[in-house]
Amino acid sequence: MADPLGFISGSQGVNPFVGKKPGSSGTAGDAGGASFKDTLIDNIKRVDELQQQADRAMEDIATGKRDDLEGVILATQQADSAFRMLQSVRNRVMEAYDELKQVRV
Known about the structure:
This protein is 59% helix and 0% strand.
């Protein structure tokens, strides 16, 4: 499966916390790494860009400005894959939140 958001094949590799000292939080202040919030916002923006590109491609093919149907199909599939990946990340975050709500203090 392709990785449209770069979570798997990003610049930090599969696990960005490998090689960090125990007790380091892995926040934006540690060794220049991005926080989860920043990464999530960047990926939301990337998904939005892909969806806008797919919309433009479909409009262009409908108006006759473009004639490569394969390019339009590829753009829509990339946008769909990116959205599905982002949606699965959202679902996992919601599952984690629900588990935290169940914890008794």
